[in-house]
Design brief:
By secondary structure, the chain is an alpha+beta fold. The protein is built from six helices and ten strands. The strands form three sheets. A five-stranded antiparallel sheet has the order 1-2-3-5-4. Strands 6-8-7 form a three-stranded antiparallel sheet, with no helix packed on it. A hairpin with a 2-residue loop joins strand 2 and strand 3. Helix 4 runs antiparallel to helix 6. The longest helix is centred in the C-terminal third of the chain and has 17 residues. The protein is globular, with a radius of gyration of 20 Å. 36% of the residues are buried.
Length: 272
């Protein structure tokens, strides 16, 4: 009798690892306003670093229901995936050492990748887009600019869809292999216009063809009964899901990047 064929081990995906793995807390990210724990996660011989944000460590906000920021982080991942851009690292909602929370794959950023800058000129140079003038102290101002980068442009569209109220420079994680990830999406999906970002360089400009194509694919995926909506309904209120539909429809109808509303601070503070 011949020996049985060896069955290769099942590959462990990032979502498997984050959802089913054993979380071990290694430290705390002190700069964060909410509890952010640096962890390792292990499952079936695979280990990775990740971030764990327990709901119990969320500070209350006046304009968001208490204990909902972790769900919003996961919803942002789901929308990013539905757009086909994978801008948000793999993110899940699960139980951990301090209760339910958001768990997200840790991304090592390349510190040499320049996406934002302050310049002394009145206009941005080639390859840059102007955001606005910033006070740099001693009565001086400088022009805040961001790279004219297709990855950032996709992120600006994602932020418009999820109504991101806090897109700061420190939330941008370019990697050494050229991939851009974005993190910290707890302040998103409000039913009111809260868009506040450093990525205003394309404000009012026509959307790129790839953005319109991605939005056109996303729109029917937001219909009642679709898997994406079933998932979002577990994370957001019905009114918030309706608002996502409305923002997507408005972007497709206008064909342009949004402009500041004037009813809400357009640039986050601090900007990093």
């Amino acid at each position: 009798m011949s020996a049985p064929e060896r069955i290769p081990p099942r590959s462990v995906t990032a979502l498997d690892l984050l959802t089913k793995g054993e979380l071990t807390v290694r430290g705390r990210v002190r700069e964060a306003s909410n509890a952010v724990l640096f962890c390792s996660v292990s499952y079936e011989g695979e280990t990775a670093s990740c971030v764990y944000k327990p709901v119990a460590g969320e500070r209350p906000l006046w304009d968001f229901p208490d204990g909902t920021l972790a769900q919003r982080e996961v919803a942002a991942y789901e929308i990013s995936q539905a757009l086909g851009w994978t801008l948000v690292p793999p993110t899940v909602l699960r139980d951990g050492p301090y209760g339910q929370g958001m768990v997200q794959l840790w991304i090592e950023a390349d510190p040499s990748a320049a996406l934002l800058a302050l310049v002394e000129e009145e206009e941005p140079g080639d390859g840059w887009k102007a955001v606005g003038f910033a006070d740099v102290g001693e009565g001086r101002t400088a022009l805040l600019v961001h790279a004219d980068d297709e990855r950032l442009r996709r992120l600006a569209v994602l932020d418009a869809v999820i109504n991101n109220g806090d897109r700061k420079g420190g939330h941008l994680l370019p990697t050494a292999d050229g991939v851009l990830y974005a993190i910290d999406h707890g302040v998103t999906f409000n039913v009111d216009d809260k868009l506040r970002t450093l990525l205003w360089g394309w404000a009012g400009e026509p959307l790129a063809p790839e953005a319109l194509e991605a939005l056109t694919v996303l729109a029917p995926a937001l219909a009642d009964g679709e898997p994406l909506v079933t998932r979002l309904a577990q994370l957001l209120t019905a009114a918030e899901v309706d608002s996502v539909r409305a923002r997507v429809a408005a972007l497709i109808a206008s064909g342009r990047h949004p402009v500041p509303s004037g009813e809400w601070p357009a640039i986050p503070w601090p900007p990093v």
